[in-house]
Amino acid sequence: MLEGGYYAIRDRLVERLDEPAPARVQMLTGPRQVGKTTILLEVGRRWGDAAVYLAADAPDAALPGWWEIQWRRATELARRDKTVLLLDEVQYLPNWPRLVKSAIDQVYRERLPLHIVITGSAALEVASGSRETMAGRYERLVLRQWNPRDLAKAFSVSEEEAVGCFVRFGSFPGGMRLLPDVPRWKAYLRDSIIDPAIGRDLLMLEQVRKPALLRQVFAVCTGHPSQILSLAKIAGAIADKGTLETIAHYLNLLEEAYLVSPVRKYSHKELRRRASPPKVVPLSNAFLAASLAGEPPLPGSDPTTWGVWLENACLAFAIGCEQTVHYWREEPLEVDAVLCGSWGKWAVEVKAGDYTSRDLSSLLEFCRRWPEYRPMVIGEEDHAHTARRLGIDFLSWKKFLWDGIG
Q1: Cα dist from 257 to 38, 121, 175, 193, 288, whole Å
Q2: Which DSSP category does 92 fall into?
Q3: What is the rounded distance in angstroms from the CA atom of residue 145 to the CA atom of residue 170?
Q4: Are 320 and 258 in contact (CB under 8 A)?
Q5: 209-251 pLDDT, tens per residue?
Q6: Measured between alpha carbons, how far is 254 from 252 in angstroms, rounded to an integer?
Q7: CATH architecture entry for 6-142
Q8: Which residue did the predictor score with more confidence, 135 or 79?
Q9: Is residue 280 classed as helix, strand or coil in its secondary structure?
Q10: Coil, helix or strand at residue 39
């Protein structure tokens, strides 16, 4: 299974809960509507009466004494036998880091056979609240957007259908049944994922001073997928004015919420990486489709837009598979992606259509300068001959989105 996928994360969590308790808190984070609650409910069914499931965003959770009552219930069960506490959307629990720290400290102190699992959609809220208070007491699992293999397994669709859907519509499982009705699917994306993530999850954070500006930064990113955008260029494309520091901060917020990844330039010099403009990668092509007036592109009908969407899908997929992703540019040379991780070290060009050997000169120059990286072209199988003639590895985009590299 691919790293970061739904089934891989679920199975990893189940394995950790089979370990002796007490253990560190399992913190499951990720974007909205990818199945975090579903995983908790699956775990709850496996554990039966030994599981305590709590929804911190339920109305009852706001009542005084709610947490104390639920915690007492969990510890009483644990004193009789091994128990798991499943706390969903923990960021809605007031002062949750202090409460969870106190709980896990009691578990350690009394050696209770109690596992604790917490989830949160707003990654920054979870992470910032836990960095100091929960230091050394938790392990983090990130459930990202589904990959095509997960879609095929869950919805009984072919490999061809799954990878095509991933590029054109993204991979949010809750919207799969709505795809025959595209306007209804777009409404689901806006109402269930985008608006709550930006309008509620991130606005819970004190740092968001200009909500309208945050929405506009997100809109610029989805309108320019996989493009290198300076902060000044983003500022020039939005109506509300904000400092470049504010825009940079909002890009980081969008990354923490699993909406957009500002991919940095490849360089051995840290200062140069930070000073270079980012390549903005919306982390699901669903965000591109939701803001589109018409239907998502097809290779034959709109090859230019299809090429942009394909590159974005490939980069988002690599990020979702926990690879480190950079781009490289030294005018006039540019490489779409520089990958490093469990797949190895690769310099990658994504080509949706035909290309010439001249189009691969940047790729070859990068690998000449950094020979530890191998060159690869991802594209249509019909156009593999040019890359292979130059001794460059080639992988069809369908195979890449299905298996990754290696």
Answers
A1: 19, 7, 19, 11, 16
A2: G
A3: 8
A4: no
A5: 788 889 999 999 999 999 999 999 998 888 777 788 889 989 9
A6: 5
A7: 3-Layer(aba) Sandwich (3.40)
A8: 79
A9: strand
A10: helix
- The encoded tokens of residue 228 equal 């290198």
Annotated domain spans of the chain: 6-142, 148-403
pTM check: above 0.70: yes
| DSSP per-residue letters across 308-370 | HHHHHHHHHHHHHTT-EEEEEEETTEEEEEEEEETTEEEEEEEESS---GGGGHHHHHHHHH-
CA distance 31 to 39: 14
CA distances from 121 to 28, 261, 367 (A): 9, 16, 39
Please report how the helices 244-256 and 123-130 are oriented relative to each other, as an axis angle in degrees rounded to 10.
90
Check residue 25 and give left, alpha or beta (phi > 0: left; psi -120 to 50: alpha): beta
- Contact of 351 with 299, CB cutoff 8 Å: no
Q: What is the pLDDT of residues 104-143, one digit of tens each?
A: 999 999 999 999 999 987 665 555 555 556 667 889 899 9
What does the alpha-carbon distance between residue 249 and residue 191 come to, in Å, rounded to a whole number?
A: 25
**DSSP-derived secondary structure for 191-222:** IIIIHHIIIIIGGGSTT---HHHHHHHHHHHH
Q: How far is CA 54 from the centre of its chain?
A: 25
Nearest CA to 315 out of 225, 380, 224 is that of 225
Amino acid present at 157:
V
